[in-house]
Write a structure and sequence with these properties.
Strand order of the largest sheet: 5-9-8-6-10
Distance between the termini: 31 Å
Structural class: alpha/beta
CATH topology: Rossmann fold
Largest sheet: 5 strands, mixed, barrel
Number of domains: 1
CATH architecture: 3-Layer(aba) Sandwich
Oligomer: single chain
CATH superfamily: Nucleoside phosphorylase domain
Shape: globular
Number of strands: 11
């Protein structure tokens, strides 16, 4: 039997990554979660600076790992976790731009679907859908966990865009009344569907038309979302 020596993007050995992984985009946010929420956290990856750690949270083994920016980056890291590391569940904890006027910076959004014009899902798997859904069981658990904590959350479909900077003249109308914009959930949900795994997503509003958070705040100030995700993760 050939020994597994990791992937081009992850040097972890089999067994070093838990069945459930909480994934922020920023690897420094993964480090922050490991250092501030996990006990006995051990680094399992630092290839390309994409930090990953496994430790325990309230007695349950949990891993955290960055996934980078954009659909291609999420597609690579989540695919490898699902396919090669026997991960069953991934909960993305990301940032987003809030579309609703009543939203404020740091509000939390529970993603009910991810729309995109990206060609990723069709190129990789022949899927022609422009909307993919998270695992309903994990999504329900995240909503229940937030309610138990008395945390208000928004729920809805988000736009997973390929472009962070764009000419507004060429922006197409979104057909699903999206409530926020981000860049990764579409890939996570498509990978989960193809591989028979489970993906879900919580987002924190990091910018709106009338304001935005700082890089430091995006690394460390999303504690409400992180706590909801971790408290749900230990129930999986």
């Amino acid at each position: 039997m050939t020994q597994f020596n990791g992937t081009p993007h992850n040097t972890a050995k089999l067994g070093e990554i838990a069945k459930t992984v909480v994934m922020p985009g920023d690897p420094l946010r993964a480090k922050f979660i490991a250092e501030n929420f996990l006990e006995d956290a051990k680094e399992f990856n630092h290839v390309r600076g994409m930090l990953g750690y496994t430790g325990t949270y309230k007695g349950k083994r949990i891993s955290v790992m960055g996934h980078g920016m954009g659909i291609p980056s999420m597609a690579i890291y989540s695919y490898e976790l699902f396919k090669f590391y026997e991960v069953d569940n991934i909960i993305r904890v990301g940032s987003c731009g809030g579309y609703l006027d009543e939203m404020n910076l740091f509000d939390v959004i529970l993603v009910e679907g991810a729309y995109s014009t990206s060609s990723f899902a069709e190129t990789a798997y022949g899927y022609k859908e422009d909307l993919f859904y998270p695992d309903q069981g994990i999504t329900d658990l995240l909503e229940k966990t937030a309610a138990q904590k008395g945390r208000k959350i928004y729920k809805g479909i988000v736009h997973s865009g390929d472009a962070f900077y764009y000419d507004p003249a060429f922006k197409k109308k979104e057909p699903y009344d999206c409530i926020a914009g981000e860049m990764e959930s579409f890939a996570l949900f498509a990978n989960a569907k193809y591989l028979g795994k489970k993906g879900a997503c919580l987002l924190t509003v990091s910018d709106k038309k009338d304001g935005e958070t700082t890089p430091e705040e995006r690394q460390t100030a999303f504690k409400e979302m992180i706590e909801i995700a971790l408290d749900a993760a230990i129930q999986l």
